[in-house]
Amino acid sequence: MSEDIEIDLDDLNRRMDGAMAALRQEFASLRTGRASATMVEPIMVDAYGAMTPINQVGTVNVPEPRMVTINVWDKALVGKVERAIRDSGLGINPVVDGPIIRLPIPELNEERRTQLTKVAAQYAEHARVAIRNVRRDGMDRIKKAKTAGMSEDEQKIWSDEIQELTDKAIAAVDKLLETKQQEIMQV
Questions:
Q1: Local structure of residue 75 (DSSP, 8 states)
Q2: Which of 133, 136, 43, 30 is nearest to 81 (CA)?
Q3: What average pLDDT does this structure show over 33-56?
């Protein structure tokens, strides 16, 4: 292969991994009927005159599969934390028990589960598109390298490697989607 013409596979792989990381984060935000401490991470509480993440005003635990508890450190903030949870749009009614706030996670009905699997499929498709865009960028680099003097054999080798990276990344997206859909449909 030519020394002056190089396709950065590590960069392409890193960008594909970034799409996978974004997909995992989107999947974590989907409520599956099962309790998770990540459900309350985006909630901000008006504490001491500043908007503060909920995990910085109390300890978030998952003692049961359908229960999240928040042990608020400052008893004066219990009402504010409860209000922040109610206003968050999670659709969960907090139960206050002294400094501890319990969040019982309701069962998902079949219709809602089906909707969530469709949302998960949309997230996965966005990740696939992002991966394909990275692939296209790599193929464009090969075309530019062709004009700079890259041989056809080298072009074939590079395009095969980029396609292999793409196939692996899309297979990983499909596996993540399948796992998430099974998790959502699990009663």
A1: G
A2: 43
A3: 84
Q: Which residue has the tokens 């503060």?
A: 52
Residues 90 and 151 reside in one and the same domain: no
**Boundary residue ending a domain (104, 123, 140):** 104
Please give the single-letter amino acid code of residue 133: N
Place of tokens 């089906």: 114
Query: Could you give the CA distance from residue 22 to residue 14 in angstroms, rounded to a whole number?
Result: 12
**Which helix H or strand E contains 57, and what residues bound it?**
none
For residues 19 and 162, the answer to whether their CB atoms sit within 8 Å is no
Beta strand 95-97 with 67-72 is unpaired
Which residues constitute the domain of residue 59? Answer: 37-104
Q: Give 153: exposed, middle or buried? Use CB within 10 Å, 0-12, 13-18, 19+.
A: exposed
Report the 10 Å Cβ neighbour count for 57: 22
- Cα–Cα dist 112/128, whole Å: 24
pLDDT in tens, 147-166: 888 888 989 999 999 999 99
- Considering the domain architecture, whether residues 119 and 88 belong to the same structural domain is answered as no
Q: Where a domain ends, among 86, 104, 122?
A: 104
3 lies in a domain? Answer: no
